[in-house]
Design brief:
Elements lengths: L1 E10 L1 H7 E8 L7 H11 L4 E6 L2 E7 L5 H7 L5 E6 L6 H10 L10 E5 L2 E10 L5 E9 L5 E10 L6 H6 L3 E3 L6 E3 L8 E2 L13 E2 L9 H15 L4 E8 L3 E3 L7 H9 L3 E6 L7 H13 L4 E5 L7 E6 L2 H7 L13 E6 H10 L1 H21 L16 E7 L2 E7 L5 E7 L8 H12 L5 E5 L4 E12 L14 H7 L6 E5 L3 E5 L9 E2 L4 E9 L4 H4 L19 H13 L4
Helix pairs in contact: 7-11, 10-11
Amino acid sequence: MAISNQLSIRFNFNEINNAYDFYIISTSDKYISGGAYLLDKPIDSLKAESVVFDNGRSVFLMFKKGVSNRIDLVNQLIDEKLTIKQVSSENIKDYILFRLFLYSLSNFESDDNKFNNVSGKLYITRPKWMSKNKKTFKCLNINVDDKLCLTAEATTFTQTSLFTNKKILNEYPKYTFSNKNGALKRTFDSDSETYIRRSLFGKKAEISYLDFSKSNIENNKVFFIYKTIRMVSERFLDLLTVKFKEITVTKTIGKYIDDDFVNKSINLLKGRTLNLVNWSNSDEFIDEFNAISTLVKSKNVFKVVESKTINKNALNLVYLHNKEYYEQMKYNDPYKKFVSSAVIQHITIEDCADKLVDDNEAIINTIFKEFAIKLDIAEQSKISLDDWSLFNYNERMIFGREKNNIHYFMIINPEGSFEFKRKANDLRSFGDKALDKCSRFLTDNLGKDKSIIVSENNAIVISRTGSFTLPSEKIFSLETISRSNESRKAYFDGVVDVNLYDNLECFYNAGIKGSGMNTLIPKAPILYKVECIEGHNFIDKIIESLAVPFVKYKNFTVLPYPFKYLNEYIETCEKTVD
């Protein structure tokens, strides 16, 4: 059985109402003015056990029985547009009620970490997560969504002295951080050393999903997920019971197909001209750019030239910052200057500088396979990195997505040749019954992260969920953690390899490769829901297309790999500069 992050909760409402008072503060405006201040004040001055921000118009407060009353709140929170109402626990939505108990862990601290309920959220802080220069620190935002899925997201707080944009500083609440115990508190003191919850230049905070090496076994998301739920269960033993739901794995794929994709890529790219473009616009990054140049030249695959402009008649490898950098710095976005008819692969400063030192083989092989895919799209009209015919489909398969009100499709024939089609989301016909049907399905099933796959008589929709799978909590009590087949089945079921779950509803996920796995699992294995909208559900056949290492280098992919081709085609279509 695999363990999901979805919670099963039973509340003892009578005991809860005997122990706590609950209030909801609402506004008649579109949102609560000065919301962050309103969220932090009850914790600081009204002795609230926890504060939960449900949406822009509602705040829930939990107090120990008799500590506060409605009149106290009205006197403290003077605003004629606010209404304050006392509510019973049974009249609060389950996920809000559980959040109130979850966030009340802010009263807990140890020498190693601190739980903080600030601005209506729960943050776990650790002095170890403070940067060496004390300018930034990471923390873990623990939450539960409306489907009772527990989440753990890393975020960054940055010292205000690093920001020169006063508008940014005025938009964000400011906090102080204690290096002694990790306490995070709201402050209005402009003279103190303050932080805001924002990163610099799009640098994302990273805390590993799971690292079970001896040095990091208690320094990862999974450890704190289990610790948090254990603390809630122990503290509120008489008020609620909570546990993680389990789901049954019905099929597992643990081996890659087409593991020779690098050689296939090289054969396709051999002798091509590679135009290496430096758009970093700073001598600060010239060493990394030169390292990339040396790397690609050393492989003797391309004819390498260097320039400052895109060349339509060559493959273009562009060195620049990531998109978030240009958005935050208010610079002209060079991504918008890419030439639509050129073959372009970008390599970003933020994502690749460390890898040039640690794993340059991964970088060069990623460059090879990305250009191979782009050339397939631009020239070949047939999949080069995989033998599609080995799937033994006796009919064409259609893969569809919608973006910005345009429907995009990749149609793959049984032998692997393909073509793309697109049109606006309207009533015009493709002149192809299957494509027209696929377009109607896509219209009816639109939503964030929805993808559709259609054969002649069957159709399924794939959507990303907020759920993921967890390893067994028992790993944290083992002296050593084996990575044998038996150990992976006992402790990592549903976390490694590609897994299908066909219980009351159908899901799948893709973890890291189990055979030869290391101790680090960087990302949570997200569950994807599969719904059949016509005919029968054929995900058990298409799921093998996740077992390729050429979409995510040396990792399984989370969507059938034709969506990689389709997304590249969509990106090409959205380029406007010719």
